[in-house]
């Protein structure tokens, strides 16, 4: 089986024009991930492939060090941190060496502060961007969305984490499995840790119940990834109803738990998902304290990192705003946190029972209520309407029969004339006015100023200009026959939008008013484009609209290059 997997990856290498990523996934240290990675390195070398070890963590294991012999090793870079010399992967040396394949251990490892990137997975993404293929290792507990699940299952707070999208974008995932009894035996024989650590490890983390839980999580994750790939290959442009929505609060006790659950659910159902914060008048930036603002900012940033499209809405009635959003964005599952108990005198009036109001009024939607106030069993789910297999309400497919039913992607709705690049800082209003004008020029929209007004009104209701470098303004337009996308690149950011990370790319999405599925699909594509590190960097480096369009086309069609339209 291992030889077959290696052969498949070898075929990918030989026919690929870009770097491919292969991940050996395991449930715990010692199952054999690094061993199999090195074995494959030798097999590829024997096939005439130029292979180097970019980074190997032996942790004192002589068997691993011995297996690495015969493979070229790129020397590490030594860097001082707080007076301590630390050896890290020298990414510049790997790029300069430019092998066909680099073996890089422990994908989730954080780099020493001051390095080129904060995390090793970002180094790997930079290496892949140059056309170098990477084989790496990862334990399942390092996935960001599993943080709370792992903590509850085995009582461990995992500090080294990476976004689930890194694993989802891998070209090949191999599960490295080992019976828990055999793993404990390997530990006892000193094949995993040094002798002074064996007793503690056996008595604490390596107890059978912990290992079985982690093993199950790994198998479930692998099955989820396989199902995700199957769904993607079978995507025929049908209705995209049943999106996921996570409700955030400035005073929520555990927004991270909600976001990780929403991310897992969206991955399981292969749906877009949204993180929505409704700002009431009492939560204006001039009213709430700095600590609450920081808490909210961190939550929305994590949402973006986990793959959500982030919205901040203004409204006096939270439940009503949430439900209106859910109806427009084809939401089938609403994820919310259980509120803390309130004194009797606070249980009346607007926004005093948001969750209860959602459960009562969310017709045709599933409302999932998580206990974010403490450690509780898995969440309870109540539905406002009985739905088969918990898959959400079925709605008519309004895209069927349209020219965009087969392939509704960014490039199908974009042209070089609708791409604008600003070298200097620019105001948000000017960005939107310019992009609206670019969209109007080609699409016979009679009232250009009215369109701009609609976009600004929509942004005032719920803005997407928030952190992580990208924004997704959008509006549904009456009388529009086909969706339209315009893209703006801001080399020095949007000057009047205060974010920790400057807004560097803006996707303006116009969709026909009578086909909401188109808006949902294009939002999903734009969000995935912004989250793809390689594409994002290529877009930022684009010198002309044609460069930008070519980069998007190559991303959407990695094995087939299509000539861009003018």
Describe the structure.
The chain has 566 residues and is an alpha/beta fold. It contains 19 helices and 20 strands. The chain has 3 domains: 2-233, 3-Layer(aba) Sandwich (Rossmann fold); 243-390, 3-Layer(aba) Sandwich (Rossmann fold); 410-556, 3-Layer(aba) Sandwich (Mannitol-specific EII, Chain A), CATH 3.40.930. Helix 5 links the parallel strand 6 and strand 7 (133-139). The longest helix is centred in the middle third of the chain and has 26 residues, at 208-233.
Total individual domains:
3
The largest sheet, given as strand count, sense and whether it forms a barrel, is: 7 strands, mixed
CATH class of the largest domain: Alpha Beta
Would you identify the CATH H-level superfamily of the largest domain?
A: P-loop containing nucleotide triphosphate hydrolases
Low-confidence stretches: 343-348, 375-407, 561-566
Number of strands: 20
Helix content: 25-40%
CATH architecture level-2 label of the largest domain: 3-Layer(aba) Sandwich
Helix count from the secondary structure assignment:
19
What overall form do the CA principal axes indicate?
globular
Gyration radius, to the nearest Å? Answer: 25 Å
Q: Give the DSSP E fraction (strand runs of 2 or more residues).
A: 15-25%
Q: State the end-to-end distance.
A: 48 Å
